[in-house]
């Protein structure tokens, strides 16, 4: 075979400076050309790339344009972002969920909330608030596959990422979506009210026998999601229920925290999506 043999594929994982690229010839172990390091570019799981060479001389020679990218966890070209939230044990952490919806919007994604353990707790108030705010909420009950079918339909021909706090059932969900995957799960800690982290690195798995079934990321811990790139004054447009009111605030640079005549704050308590004010309090979390 020629030393100039070229293939295209997708990076499924990186470990110790090696990148594993899924191509028509199978999964290839590669290194990246030094030019990427000089340009400050790091290949990410999800990158569409070009691989040159053969044998032990395989190198990633080109990274195609990204649809989006996340710093932590380090992934690229996400089509779907599923927020996996448990109705109980542990109960939903509203502040963290609001951060995640903001991060998704910042990257041009409309997140889908997957509510697990609804056979144990209905969490009707939680569901009503987010559905009223315009989010799709999929119920995932232990003894029914309807929610699983809805998730599989969204995953077709797409690259999906599932994020969720430890113990919410994210790994169990991934194992259900792709039988045979057999990812390690962990019981929820009764003392801490959360599960143990079981995922050690970001990796892409196929959700079926053909690319049409889609691919998913399994990512390390929920708390490693990066928010540092979002500035305080960029937050308000990331919350869809704020949009009708943003132009009605007294001040153009209103942060919707302590300002007078804030049209967003005036809505608190008037509609279901403004039934409580974590999103206005949430802005205080940004530096």
Features:
single chain, 287 residues, alpha/beta, OB fold (Dihydrolipoamide Acetyltransferase, E2P), Rossmann fold, Ribonucleotide Reductase Protein R1, domain 1, six-stranded mixed sheet, five-stranded mixed barrel, 6 helices, 17% helix, 25% strand, disordered C terminus
Summarize, please.
The chain is an alpha/beta fold. It is 17% helix and 25% strand. A hairpin with a 2-residue loop joins β2 and β3 (26-32).
**Radius of gyration over C-alpha positions, nearest whole angstrom:** 21 Å
> What would you call the shape?
globular
Name given to the CATH homologous superfamily of the largest domain: P-loop containing nucleotide triphosphate hydrolases
Q: How much strand?
A: 25-35%
Largest sheet: 6 strands, mixed
CATH first level of the largest domain: Alpha Beta
Q: Which strand order do you get reading across the main beta sheet?
A: 10-9-8-11-15-14
Q: Helical amount among residues, as a percent range?
A: 10-25%
Number of helices: 6
Low-confidence stretches: 188-199, 280-287
How far do the termini sit from each other?
A: 55 Å
What order do the SSEs take from the amino end to the carboxyl end, as H and E?
A: EEEHEEEEEHEHEHEHEEEEH
CATH architecture of the largest domain: 3-Layer(aba) Sandwich
Mean pLDDT: 81
Number of strands: 15
- Summing up helix and strand content along with how strands pair, one would put the structural category as alpha/beta
**What is the domain tally?**
3
